[in-house]
Amino acid sequence: MKIVHLCLSSFYIDEFGYQENLIPKYNKKDGHEVTIIASTFTYNKTNGEPSTVDVGEYINNDGVKVIRVDYKYNFWGFFNDKIKIFDGTYQLLERENPDIIFCHGIQFLDLYNVTKYVEKHPNCKLIADTHATEANSGKNFISRELLHKIIYKRAIQKSLKNIEKIYAIAPGCKYFAEEMYSIPSSKIEYLFLGADTDEINFENQNKIRNKIRNDLNIAAEDFVVITGGKITKRKNIDALLSAIKKIDKDNIKVIIFGAINTNIKEKLLQKIHQDKRVSFIGWIDSKDVYNYYLASDLAVFPGSKSALWEQAICCGLPLICKEWSGMKYVDVGGNCIFWDNDIEELRMNIESLMEDTKKYESMRSIALTKGYETFSYEIISRKALS
């Protein structure tokens, strides 16, 4: 089939491990013809800030055609970032002539043009997902009551009859879609985030583990905690560092990867450098993240939700993560410990997994079996088209 993925509701970042990267990758791998139509919004890997790229067309590293488009009405300035009407969306769909359109996000007014195309081409099926929750969207009165409950809701409601299915990536997204846009529950299914399981090299795990640990001067018997990503204040890495400081053991090590947001960088790096057991390795390619997971023993994410959670699970890592409403689906039977802002509690949870071998191995086994089956993008990408 010919599949067009629309990444116009938010950013699209090349070579990342997000849903809008990996579902197209596995669609292509399964033999479909795939195009991504995306905004110019991306992410600066150096300073951890939002960024833009040029309008244009290219083939990405997965062999997928990417078309970057700009706003249609640039004189609207700041409002463009909210209403999101792009230049030539309808014409691009006519040119690509897809069998399936997958909208990644439904919070954009160009949805009118998408549904206009589907109405004119009834053999083309439209599916969508939504990532919006109370934690990341509609966080002030104007955004919630005007942008979401009126402007986006009108576009979504007008389009609903043309959308085959809306996928919520978490229970919190389903609740938000129902409450904010009055989308019927029957129209929504779950399609969880996952991992690029092609990149998890279990066969050479020992070799990978030894090399990374040697490079970082970490002993084979050390207990390694890993965290990272796009490091903003909401990721709460400071809490992890505080908990680690309370653990009086030389055999615990911490690996932090990613880009630190400018407004917290100086203070966080200062705290990192105060503990010789902590290694900050900076930005790494999304494919290399899996190798660092294979070299580690435990993943800890004390802040906001990230696709890195599911990726860690698929690599067989027990997970300690912040307890968010609607996010407990990452626990598929005992692989996760949920934490609620108490530093001493976080310390105790980490130490318990260092000392209780039976508990640790049980969590690891569940991650490697049920976790892998639940969060593999090879499986998720096929489910999305079903």
Automatic annotation (TrEMBL):
UniProt-recorded Gene Ontology molecular function terms: glycosyltransferase activity
Keywords noted in UniProt: Transferase
Pfam family, one: Glycos_transf_1
Keyword Transferase annotated: yes
Source organism phylogeny: Bacteria, Bacillati, Bacillota, Bacilli, Bacillales
Transferase found in the keyword field: yes
Residues in Glycosyl transferase family domain copies: 209-365
GO biological process: lipopolysaccharide biosynthetic process
Organism: Bhargavaea beijingensis
Domain Glycosyltransferase subfamily 4-like N-terminal: 29-198
InterPro entries: Glyco_trans_1, Glyco_trans_4-like_N
Protein name (Swiss-Prot/TrEMBL): Glycosyltransferase involved in cell wall bisynthesis
